[in-house]
Amino acid sequence: MDPIFDSALFQNYATRPGQFDEVFARNNHIKPVYSDLIGSFSALSPAEYRQLNEYAKRSFLSQGITFATYNQNPRGIERIFPFDLLPRIIHKQEWEVIERGMIQRAQAMDLFLHDLYNDKKVLKDKIIPLELIHSSHHLCRFMEGFTPPGNTYCHISGTDLIRHADGEYYILEDNLRCPSGVSYVLANRDAMKKTFSQLFKQFNVASVMDYPSVLLEVLQSVCPAGVDDPVCVLLTPGVYNSAYYEHSFLAQSMGVELVEGRDLYVDNDFVYMNTVYGPEKVDVVYRRIDDDFMDPLVFLADSVLGVPGIMSAYRKGNVTLVNAPGTGVADDKAVYTYIPEIIRYYLDQEPLLKNVPTYRCREPEHLQYVLEHLSELVVKPVDQSGGYGIFIGQNASREEIEKEKERILGSPREYIAQPIMALSLHATFIEQKNQFEPRHIDLRTFTLKGRDVQYVLSGGLSRVALKEGSLIVNSSQGGGSKDTWIIND
Amino acid sequence: MLSRVANHLYWMGRYLERTDHLARYINVEYFSSLDSPEPQQHVIALKSIIDMTGMPPVEDQDLNEEEILVTAALDDKNPVSIISSLYACRENARSARESLSKELWEAINNFYIFVSSYPVDVYKTRGLFDFTTHVMQHCANVRGRIMFTLMHDISWQFIHMGLLVERSAQIVRIMISKLNDIEELKKLKLGQYMEAQQYNILLDCVEAKDMCHKYYSNWPERHATVDFLLFNPYFPKSVIRSLQKLKQSLEKIQTERMVSQKDISFQVGKLIAPMEYVEFSDIEADLQNFLEDTLSKIYLISDLIAKKYFS
Fold first, then answer.
1. ipTM
2. Burial of A401 per CB tally in 10 Å (0-12, 13-18, 19+)
3. Is the pTM above the cut of 0.90?
4. How many CB pairs under 8 A join A and B?
């Protein structure tokens, strides 16, 4: 008999009919890939588990891996991101397909962006409707007719995957601007190793610690022509940004300067930073601020985060921006629906990973369907991130549905709709109840691409919706995370 | 290294050092006044804490012991409290975190977590000694991490200069405050023994008592105390030692061009040099003025550093 029935941590665990549980099959039998792990966890009493949990929390707090909310106290109340100690496991065989799928997608994205800003064959061949691209907020006219070094646009992509009730992985969305979260993958791994050192010895878990060195390799690989020993920097909006920990962590682990906009200036189309010994030329900028704030001379004039003149230096080929400006046009949720066609068009391959079936409200037949089936659908604005503005039909009242219809009809281009994808469930420790319960999870993966470098981080960030029944995993809305183990037996 | 980061490191050092002196001053002043036969001495101690920390002055009849002690330590609205000073230290460290070692950053962060979560009720009733002692221990711990977990390269020199500028400034401030207390106490005519005791307290505020006793093989009095704190060539906290070390730091980071232009370390040398040839008898008559003048020189040096490297 499975050991969980004697374990106080798991004895009340109930799988949900019709939903995919990562850990348990029906009748609470442990899935083979998890059996050793759950065996070890169920040997712990709730008191012992709580102690380990407290230890892990303290370790995040003392490392300062926190985010601050400023509404109660001007100095900010610091909180840690909730972290669940039971890791999510993906078997290596399964993972290799995802890995190949991510590389395929990243290659197609770069070809697509280059075409879009140069020859526009994809539009001429009517693979994607012209006005869909032209109406995108993220189309960057400054990129027209320009080829970035190494022909790379999306050096860093963060792609979100879910596992549906059918047990299959689906791509939920791409993040091609400034995807964040990778530092939590590394911090989670570190916390797991310290808390469960014995467990790690039993499993053959793929390392994630190579990420910063590959990232540096990517940055150096795309430096401007003629530069032998490139100076790379990471540009942050500053300490009050919610991802500041990640910025400083990445800068430190790559050994590059962490700069703010005020540290940089442009002279004669070259970028320099102010050092104690005067100006030093900068060759590659891994920028963690959005396009709109990059250069007040070109984009938002009142931005104080960016660097006046940097876009002109970029166009002259004197500095490389990572990611390239204008990549947002490809992670637009309306363009997302065309990615399978884009992959076929540029690579002449079938997509290795599935897209969630998506209805584009801009197309009359789709719009019709969406309006008639709102209660079965999730409606998303095409250019919002962070889980904002999402309408979930399942629990909506009649009035709410009517209001949503009006919202969509107001500007159909702005919305897409998808069937309610049942995110898979994973056993997650619930502090208030002192036991594990099923919670929905997704997976953010991280792909790096430079000149002759391609890399997918082994695993990624498994995000958990901690609220019972909730499908929203974003940390800004009460989500937590888990370590993700790619294991090979 | 980035000018902005150099600025953060310098101020991280300054605020760390300030936090330490604030805690020690509160601790030593408060506890040394408790067993005095003269109640007025306790009033003087509280006023001295107000003066040294830089809080707005209060009239004798409005002195509220509990309020003063809480405001000086744990009030985050008071910009010169221990918690505010430490917060500024940590914010500067956070802004330059990628130049620090993980060990140093965590030492500072854990220090801040300790102070910011210290219960005010405990502090008020029985925690003053415990709190200030822990603050001093944390400072020593952080200083150890600065010393032994970083390369002593240019970034380190900026932290080091921050520590030295603040240390010399705080010691002069403490001397000004304490010598002022001694003048007040003299008026109470408590006798020579009580006055000598005050010099011991002053030395305690700087962790210098034992070494001063050893150096002079005698019970300290005015001459020995002032001479030791300002001019002793072996004691690492004496003002002249700190300023000499500061000048050495500046020499280590200057370029040849700066040397040929008689730039910053030369300018700082010019300010410090006269002090190297002063003895107690030269300044005895006008000690307060000498101290005020020294303090303004230290602040001028700080301005010179900022102008040269941070802008």
1. 0.83
2. middle
3. no
4. 57
